[in-house]
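== Item description ==
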Amino acid sequence: MFVSLDLAISGAAAAPSPPPAKPDGQHDFDFALGTWKSHLRRLQKPLAGSTSWIEGDATVSVRKIWNGRGNLEEIDLVTPSGRLQGLTLRLYDAPARQWRVHWAKASDGVLTSPPSIGQFKDGRGELYDQETLNGKVILVRHIFSAVTPTSYHFEQAFSADRGHTWEANWVADLTRTSADPAAPTLSAENRNHDFDFNLGEWDVAVKRLTDPLSGKSNWTNWKGTGHIAPVWSGLANIAEFELDGPTGHLQGVGLRIFNAEAKQWSISWANGRDGVIGVPVVGEFKDGRGELLDVEDFKGRQIYVRNLFTNITPDSAEFEQAFSEDGKSWEPNWLMTFKRKTIETKQ
């Protein structure tokens, strides 16, 4: 016993110092908040020997979520080949001290996966992911550079040789036009109205089953607020929640995108703990009731997940999440009631 203790002390004394902690990067993208004009060049056929570029001008608006630990960027690009509306959802993974970046186009309403992941160093941001292009696996790199209070440079590049060489295919220079993001609107003529009831500011109350599909019935109560705002002039919306309960503070965000071709909604959800987007639930509204489903892994087994929006009025609504192992019997585990906030006016 004495010898082993002595060895332990000696080993501890000789152990090297732990590496310095990585810097906290949750405000890395603060420079991008606001409204921008952008001149963009896009390579028509990446990794095909093409030298033909399309140029266009875009308006870019970036709003913060989670008090800056995430942000939503909306892009409205016009080129000779047409118009493109896109969005970028950037969420900070605090444990990893990295950013996760997802992309979607209004034309198909699909949030890309996997996300680009990376961080900033010395004022330069680099994020990477692996995708498939024309049947071939490639690497994708995003670089944010030359950042000033009023401008920055962005480049997307592909590599077909595991990162030895890179070909840029999306290059943009952005100039600030306002410190504030553009005000959300509902001006899109072809938008779907299913989630109009949910737009605005809400008080929310949640009952949460602590251990789903375990046979236990321990519930906890949470209270907080919800903020739901339109995206793409109403073609989509983003829902932010702040909740307090017996185990602390919970932040969540849900990006709801309508696929006009499929006539379905998808909701991609992430929590503020790690910023990881889960499997989207997909579905539709019928007779004032929304039902969306997906299949996920839960504790090593595959389950069904159902989201319901019911009892909808102008000033209230109810939400239920339930799990099922067979798709027939359902166990609710998250019950949320919405009550619209009232605006006090001074007499």
Confidence is low (pLDDT under 50) at residues 1-14. The domain at 28-178 is CATH 2.40.128.20 (Lipocalin). The helical segments are 2-14. The chain has two domains: 28-178, 196-340.
